[in-house]
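Sample pair:
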Amino acid sequence: MADPQTYRPAPGTIPTDPGVYKFRDRDGRVIYVGKAKNLRARLNNYFQPPNALHPRTRQMVYTGASVEWTVVASEVEALQLEYTWIKRFDPWFNVMYRDDKTYPMLAVSVRERYPRAFFYRGPKRKGVRYFGPYSHAWAVRETLDLLTRVFPIRTCSNGVFNRHEQLGRPCLLGYIDKCAAPCVGRVSEGEYDEIVQGFLGFMAGRTDGLVRGITSQMEQAAENLEFEKAARLRDDLGAVNKVMERQTVVLSQDTDADVIAFDTDELEAAVQIFNVRDGRIRAQRGWVVEKTGDEPGANERLEEGQVDPTLPTLMQNFLVQYYSDAVERVRQEEEEDRRIEEQKVRRRGVDQESRAAVKPAMPVPREILVDTLPEELPEVTALLEEMRGGPVDIRVPQRGDKRALMETVHKNAAEALHQHKLRRVGDLTARSQALQDIQDALGMDEAPLRIECTDISHIQGTDVVASLVVFEDGLPKKNDYRRYRIKEAAGDGHSNDVGSIAEVTRRRFKRYNEDKLANPDEVAEEQTFSDERDDADETAGGVPKRFAYPPQLFIVDGGKPQVTAAQEVFDELGIVDVQLIGLAKRLEEVWVPDDDEPVILPRNSEGMYLLQQVRDEAHRFAITYHRQQRSKRMRASELDAVPGLGPSRRTDLVKHFGSVRKVKEASVEEIQQVKGIGPKLAETIYAHLHQ
């Protein structure tokens, strides 16, 4: 790798104008494309001391061997040029929202002489129109089965088509009127083309005219006493309505909008987009991408409940890439349609006018609803308005149906990110690679088959708790999870996170040392307090399970101070067979005891993903327990400990006086006036509240 200082531009040579820059490796390949309002200020950030850079940014500048830039007139031009270069060079270190090949699609091969409709899953190709994506493969096939009643487009492969063309008789679908059978000349090329155009128009969202047309034909057939034709049209109308019913109505009929939401963690980002046309959800897409680490705020520590500072940059990049790709795809389709039309017999009059109405809709809607505004809102809005040829409104919905829909989209993004992590965990090869990566990075003698991690949770020093989660062979072992209430390092509204880590470490490994000396039949000392024990922690006979054998890797949530505190406990207890590390949030630095510099794992390595998952699971488990304790404390009352005072009378007492404070101020006679409370119980309540 090249030292960034060897190719750093000379001072004063970088202009201060807006522009776009490219980093190239030693082979001349573009590895990163970026833009800047001020090129000098932006590029100087890449040539800082290595420790001040984000791990992925540091990897990028050491991979590069040269940097070049192009000055533009405005920030809008910079956005356009950045996208053009990203599309052209496909840089490795840029976030790219590529087509997800796992989504099932409904495709129509318009370039063929007799286009066919078929199920498709894979990268998009020229000469094919795609509709969807769909959530399940069966939804594509069922939609195709319903629509072939109304539009008898062929669905057979080219081999089947050619065979029946030679035989001179149609296939089964041709006999049951689910295919127009162009293979045997049942319809002319022009008539079949009209069927295809109707199918494409319906899938593009132009449904109102079709419904009105079928309804009118059905009523006319009924008036002419053609009841069989009317019944057939009725069934066709039912099939069309069934397809339309799957497109959920979420907004008013005249609403065209895209709803976009992100969910992120330290390494990855998930985005979901719902395309709403005429008030109906026409399509839904999602991507999970790795964050570059070059976004503003990527080096900041993300606290609980804090909004990710990288979201505005991620949203901006997504809007530019997604809509630029969509507009380019529509232009390519229009060019293909023009070339296909030139190859066919030109039509005249009404027929040609009807075909002109099947033009694809503009992919940039009038309204774009986002959960976070993009970083450079005026520039992004101007770019999208130029693409659309009209006004575009980018905003965050605040209330009503649009806000509710935004929450649904955000839940989908969070679930997509969660499922993405689960798929990685469920992959045996990925888990094995992750354990191997951790072993190599830490220099361990063997892979850490058992990993434990602890985390602290509290709010301003109240209800301080800790969690201990266990992973075996890369999978969570939830029956070995433990939770703690911090006693020594917290209390009276204060909390020492370093001391809390030390306390949890001491309690966990003190139990381990004691269990090693105990006989297997002896009852081991309980690790948790009495109110912390779960039913899962006990056997059928009431004897606590042993938690004896140690992990190969013990992780504490934090940096160097937390690791040092845990190592002091290890030295105190004589623990020498457990590897100790600390994992700092946001920067994802791995701290090892007695080492002033952290270990940096590649951000895209399976080992880093596994460490992150273990840390996040410990964080989740600690927060859950903290919320339980806080909720329990907030529900507690001084009246709970009064002997003989049950829940019903306690409720009546508070309802009568209004609050516990007013109950304290009441006399024994006043307490007796409450229904169900006699003299003896009133004296007991008064004595308990004034002791």
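Residues 6 and 653 are 79 Å apart (CA to CA).
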